[in-house]
Amino acid sequence: MAHGQWTLLWRRRRPWLIAGGAALVIALVVAFLSGSSPPRTITLATGQAGGMYARYGDEYATRLERIGLRTKLTPSTGAVDNLQRLLRGEADVAFVQGGTYSLVADPEEKIRGIAAIYFEPLWVFHSGGAGLRSLSELGGRRISIGPRGSGTEAVATGLLRAHGIEPNARNVERLPNAAARQQLEQGRLHAAFFVTSYGDPLVLALMGRPELNLLSFDRGTAYARAFPALTPLRVSAGTFDLRRNLPPEDVTLLAPAALLACRSGLHPRVVEELLKAAQAIHGPGTLLDPPLRFPSREGLDIPLHEAAEVYLVNGQSFLSRNLPYGLLRWTLLARVLVISLVIWVPLARFVPALDRYRIDRHFTRLYTSLREADRRLAAARDIGTLETGLAALDRLCEEARPLCDRMPARRQRDVYDWRVHAVFVRTQAAARLAALKAGDAG
User: Fold this and answer.
1) Tens digits of residue pLDDT in 393-431
2) Which of 31, 98, 142, 214 is deepest in the core (most CB within 10 A)?
3) CA angle at 47 for the pair 45 and 48, rounded to the nearest 5°
């Protein structure tokens, strides 16, 4: 295609290209300000194999899969390990234990809380007979306080130090739950700490062994004041198993809350879906958790995610309530398209109008110059003035030629009208000039 044809094509389509380009820029700005679409996949850090975090992780994954959000489960050693995975970006969401957030350094506030979801008591099983009434009596005994990086280790460490026992002593082991249970049953451990739900099979299994006893924290109020993350729970005899009368007597347990935590940048729609799943799983309550108590902000010691705060105070957003998650992924695109159309339609009308205004200004200037030239020629009374005026009119026509050549085809009628009027003015002036010359010659 010749250069002239390209130029003509550009002139014809320039208004629409300008409008389209402006709409595209606006759409990109809207997309940038609106954030990203909800993800298809998230990673959920759970806990030790066979533990309650792992079991609840399966439940969350199943529910989220139903709405189209694939959930990859990642096992860990426990709460502190999970918090570190969130900090490193290795997980999007994690189960953590109340009171453990202060154990990790988060100066950039990369971690956010979603909700407290249930109580997970501290169980201290021991073989010291029913006479064991205080943790201080475990000094010098071989005990296990949970694996490193676990919430169990965090709680046990604080409690042991409060009772004058150094948690780094040689007799203090850090065994996984399964290994601690085995050694406790074999008599190789005097006591073992576990932080888990009463629904963990490990709890009922150890509670049912006659040679083992469950420590009761009878000074529950004092413990709660010293450790704000721990809530005293009074459990009556037979609560967990009426037939076997488990526990065999009333006990007081210390219970941190299990929490859902996430990366600060987790998409708000994912936070809402996690809370909807939490309501379905934990809302009905358990033998230890009152109905409708969870999910809750109470017991959450991690800065709350903005979307979680809105959900817990006001309920679901309009989009989350009325659209399935699969469609929520397309709301950003729909928003961009709608806003682009709203802007592009008037813009598509405005740009051609602006182009017409620009061309009309050119013709207004040409006709203004032609009118001034006509007045000067009409006022001329001698040959010299007429010749000067005609020369100026000829220059005006030459200067207007490039402008007229650039005019689009739809305005060529205006171009020819101006040329006809310019010729008309020149013809009249030339006739007067000829008459004056003829008179002088006569």
Assistant:
1) 888 888 888 888 878 777 888 888 888 888 888 888 888
2) 98
3) 145
Backbone angles phi, psi at 300, to 5 degrees: -90, 115
**Residue ranges per structural domain of the chain:** 3-21+334-441, 38-119+260-329, 121-255
Which architecture does CATH list for 121-255?
A: 3-Layer(aba) Sandwich (3.40)
Instruction: Give the C-alpha separation, 418 to 400, whole Å.
Output: 10
The C-alpha atoms of residue 155 and residue 152 are separated, in whole angstroms, by: 5
Structurally, what CATH architecture does the domain formed by 38-119+260-329 represent? 3-Layer(aba) Sandwich (3.40)
Query: Alpha-carbon distance 198 to 240, whole Å?
Result: 8
Q: How far is CA 325 from the centre of its chain?
A: 14
**Predicted pLDDT of residue 319:** 67
* Cβ atoms of residues 23 and 343 within 8 Å: yes
**Residue 440 to residue 426: CA distance in whole angstroms:** 21
The two domains 38-119+260-329 and 121-255 share their CATH topology (first three levels equal)? yes
**Tokens matching residue 316:** 């679901």
**Nearest-angstrom CA–CA distance, 174 and 193:** 10
Fill in the amino acid letter for 371: R
Whole-model pTM over 0.85: no
Tokens of 136: 């201080």
Task: List, for residues 344-359, the tens digit of each pLDDT value.
Answer: 566 666 667 777 788 8
